[in-house]
């Protein structure tokens, strides 16, 4: 069970019921939809909600089922009461159910097969590349590999520009 700031599982004083914001704007989630997007939107919506004496983790764990609809609600309702004790555990179970391996493969391929468009600036390419990385939380790529992949998929003109800036080849520079 989620706990309050005292770690004792007791709800806050004043009736014990936490307020439930209207999360109906969260889209219906079906297998194959973007579970990561749903989680990010949920975290964004709930980040400003604070209840005295209740940890962010406990509050998120309490509110998360209210962000679910239809199939996802039925999935959640199959868990025994209080069997999920942290939001991190909920996050992993939710992604395991709704972030299918085929989606992970598609998004990883999008990252590894990235190419800069001819009419795209380096900044625009970087933003698009980072978006691909952010959409796949379990891409398992080290930061150096991410940068290497990005750099090698830039147009030759932009790689030459980057290489000229530090005075030597960009990829020969080593992180300190």
Automatic annotation (TrEMBL):
GO molecular function, one term: RNA-directed DNA polymerase activity
Region (Disordered): 1-21
Keywords from the UniProt entry: Nucleotidyltransferase, RNA-directed DNA polymerase, Transferase
Protein origin, superkingdom: Eukaryota
Domain Retrotransposon gag, residue spans: 63-152
Pfam family, one: Retrotrans_gag
UniProt protein name: Reverse transcriptase domain-containing protein
Organism: Tanacetum cinerariifolium (Dalmatian daisy)
């Amino acid at each position: 069970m989620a706990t309050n700031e005292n770690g004792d599982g007791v709800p806050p004083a004043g009736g014990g019921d936490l307020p439930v914001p209207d999360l109906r704007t969260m889209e219906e989630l079906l297998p194959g939809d973007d579970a990561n997007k749903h989680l990010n939107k949920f975290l964004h919506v709930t980040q400003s909600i604070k209840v005295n004496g209740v940890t962010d983790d406990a509050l998120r764990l309490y509110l998360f089922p209210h962000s679910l609809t239809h199939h996802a609600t039925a999935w959640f309702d199959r868990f025994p009461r209080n069997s999920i004790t942290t939001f991190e555990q909920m996050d992993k179970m939710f992604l395991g159910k709704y972030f299918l391996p085929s989606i992970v493969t598609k998004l990883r391929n999008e990252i590894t097969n990235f190419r800069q468009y001819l009419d795209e600036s380096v900044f625009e390419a970087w933003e698009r590349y980072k978006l691909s990385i952010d959409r796949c939380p379990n891409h398992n790529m080290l930061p150096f590999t991410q940068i290497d992949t990005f750099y090698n998929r830039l147009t030759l003109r932009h790689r030459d520009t980057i290489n000229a800036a530090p005075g030597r080849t960009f990829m020969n520079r080593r992180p300190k």
